[in-house]
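Help needed: design a sequence for this.
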């Protein structure tokens, strides 16, 4: 059953992060709704640095999200925001995720104060703290165990180096692509052994080699076929 808030999140994620939206389609209905809420939250946090003119304004927005999560955990009525309403409805604000959410929001402040990334290692650290941290949270939401987390994190960093570096750090893109392939080659075998139940949280990482090969040129059909194959046969 859909609602205005779930429809909002669905449209936001489909338009803003098609890869993760496609991956979420392989989850069961209730889990998929939670994944979409999480991905909508991810997009909201990611766009804060580009939507403010100075760091204090970004800090205010990040604090707004901290307060909104705290209110949900306290049992208060969720704020009238579609993403917050979906977070409250799907359990993303559960106490077991509190530390992860807090760390993500702290990391979300870094771009407010930082200029260009100076090295691929610096970029990889940032990607581990943000997009990869969201992927880890996604698989935890789906029931991942602690022994699954390292593989998901490393695969997610490889994917982010391949895709996100072209926009986030174009000055490092060539080196980041090489590091992405190396990281993916090391992570792939471990990811392939992960339970299918948590795949919708990391399935998009199977697109890592495609982004290295194609850059930012669209590949919609190959993207869907790659994800279908990865879900059916393993990454």
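Sure. Designed sequence:
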């Amino acid at each position: 059953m859909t609602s205005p808030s779930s429809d909002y999140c669905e449209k936001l994620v489909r338009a803003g992060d098609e890869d993760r939206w496609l991956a979420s389609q392989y989850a069961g209905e209730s889990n998929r709704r939670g994944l979409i809420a999480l991905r909508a939250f991810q997009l909201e946090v990611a766009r804060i640095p580009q939507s403010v003119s100075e760091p204090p304004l970004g800090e205010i927005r990040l604090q707004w999200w901290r307060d909104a999560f705290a209110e949900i955990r306290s049992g208060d009525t969720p704020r009238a925001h579609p993403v917050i309403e979906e977070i409250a409805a799907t359990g993303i604000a559960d106490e077991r995720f509190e530390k992860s959410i807090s760390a993500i929001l702290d990391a979300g402040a870094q771009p407010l104060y930082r200029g260009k990334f100076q090295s691929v290692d610096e970029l990889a650290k940032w990607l581990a703290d943000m997009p990869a941290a969201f992927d880890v949270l996604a698989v935890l939401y789906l029931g991942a165990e602690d022994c699954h987390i390292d593989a998901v994190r490393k695969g997610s960093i490889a994917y982010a180096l391949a895709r996100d570096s072209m926009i986030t750090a174009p000055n490092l893109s060539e080196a980041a692509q090489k590091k992405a392939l190396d990281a993916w080659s090391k992570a792939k075998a471990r990811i392939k052994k992960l339970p299918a139940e948590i795949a919708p949280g990391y399935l998009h990482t199977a697109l890592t080699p495609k982004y290295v090969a194609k850059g930012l040129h669209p590949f919609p059909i190959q993207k869907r076929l790659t994800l279908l194959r990865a879900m059916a046969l393993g990454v």
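Residues 37 and 232 are 25 Å apart (CA to CA).
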